[in-house]
């Protein structure tokens, strides 16, 4: 009897723990911390969590399975631990379980049970300067977002995102500042941010309050906060969001509404469901997001729309049924509406899985060398191109047939990359396209775009199959048409680029160098020394580094304006030095011939 009562009580306890965890949402005050994680496979983990009252609940396949919905490759280490794109980084429970308990910490700040923002007192030493700056910016002005509509166009790459906000100034004074927040998993491959007024179309100035870069290794936990678990991490990486300050063109009066539109692009939004598939199988990709729009202000009503090219076989996966997604019209899905969304809330994790027959190539690194001569400047571009699509098995015998069949139709419906679209200046000549092992590839002129550009298709010697990477080079020369000189900023291949560097070498004797890059890009000009015939000359080199560059329309290509003055004082010096070298060579030859004649006469 006692044994039966014991097991009944234990069963009731497990049911209570399961019920408490299942109903944990922003209105509940349940707090939980993860003590142990055991990885089962790519998608599933066993989790042991400790609740606020000290009780421990274990979740496994038999009781509660936590599914890794996000499938973000940069968020895992060799031990199977991962850094999810949940951005409440100071509380361990929200990072791994993401149930959004009401006491939610974020970027060194926290919201209490009444959802009032305050600085954290328990982790005072961990609040960085950026955290305090963000706290000050959010508290400087009070805003309320009446309605929010977010739209993802999951049809092409790069992915276009559009957010329409109707905001209200609930402060007691006029304000012209507004803070936008972008989650970490979007910020690391986001670009081309544009904010404007929906009614007038006036663009607003933006300022980045912090800098978000993709970590060099896998994203790891903050070892200063979680060293009690004794995990060995290579580096510290806090998955903080990107904060952007918007400056309106006028002061917004108290209780006044304004509609703003936010447009931006995502370079690598998809990951493949399977790493390896048969050559003839359809590729399925995963798009991960959250039901709530991340914001530092309260939102009255929020909806999210997803435009998908394939209406059939679309799978929606979420941790709870509250992440309801419905098809409102053909090829358009909607999540929501959600009402009274509290600040810094991400809602539920949401994953869409659907067919995507196209390739997922992007440029990991690109370096552009521009060498300015007397009459022409020479451009040499180096690319490291990767195709993140699913790797195909048994493709050797079928690849040529598929390419030949689809090329005859003018379209290649496959996730392998056979060609790249590239844009060159109209006056470019002496063009070469080859890979690093010497295979010369083909280039076909497609069309002319106005008087400035021409579009070509670059066909590599070997197709870029899913899961492959390759390094390519392009070279061409362009005449110098005057001073100041305008050099095209983007490289030739129209693909999303994570890291792009431009190196401009000026001729010897250049002075008064002024390099004017497009807005938001920093330029560094340094002087290096070169030796010619024993003489030391100085040569100027300008370097520009760009993170997350997106292909633009040809009409909106930016330029680098280069202004310099060339002096020829070094030419007489070089001629004199060469004359001295020739005279010394003549003397040495005369002496050598004299000794040789004396030896022959003996």
TrEMBL record:
InterPro entries: Ribophorin_I (IPR007676). One of its GO terms (biological process) is protein N-linked glycosylation via asparagine. It is a single-pass type I membrane protein. GO terms for cellular component: oligosaccharyltransferase complex. Belongs to the OST1 family. PANTHER family: DOLICHYL-DIPHOSPHOOLIGOSACCHARIDE--PROTEIN GLYCOSYLTRANSFERASE SUBUNIT 1 (PTHR21049:SF0), RIBOPHORIN I (PTHR21049). This is Dolichyl-diphosphooligosaccharide--protein glycosyltransferase subunit 1. It comes from Theileria equi strain WA.
